Amino acid sequence: MEYMKPEKIIELFKEKFNNSVTNSKIEIKTAGLKKNSYSLIWLEIELKDFKEAVKLLCTIQFPHFAIISGNDTGEEIRLTYHFSLYYGERFKEISLNLTTNLAKNNLKIPTITNLIPGAQTAEREIKEMLGVTVEGLPDLANVFLPNDFPKDVYPLRKDEKGAAKMVNKKEEVEKVD
Description:
This protein has helices at 6-17, 50-60, 120-130; strands at residues 21-31, 36-45, 64-72, 76-85, 94-103, 108-110, 133-135. With 177 residues, it is α/β, with parallel strands linked by helices. The N and C termini lie far apart (68 Å).
């Protein structure tokens, strides 16, 4: 498929998913001595259409998957999947960041590994660090935490399931002279 401008990409997502796209933004950044510009697209989509949104992304061009960033906002877990389109094409690469929110009482998201196999490690990471169930994930083994790490404790959570109680706090440590 030929190069698609960021505005057209957002338009395509809004046409396909209508009200499920809850927020969108384009940022233009510059980098390097020559101040070459590059585009970042931020799309927020409802969970019910998340996997279909990744499928649509794959029809534009097979994306380069980078990472998943997750944030415990209090009421929900906010996941952002970071992709690049036109990866490695000089002055054409677009960073596309696809965000969805998971209610804490239903922390489930479908895997995208059947579309983008390279997402497996990142999906395993959000499982062990945030307690997200990635439905259909082929390998559930921990990547970073040891096998004897306490169950139902997730290091990046800010609530009672987080690891705060496991961390030595400065005020609780006895001073040594």
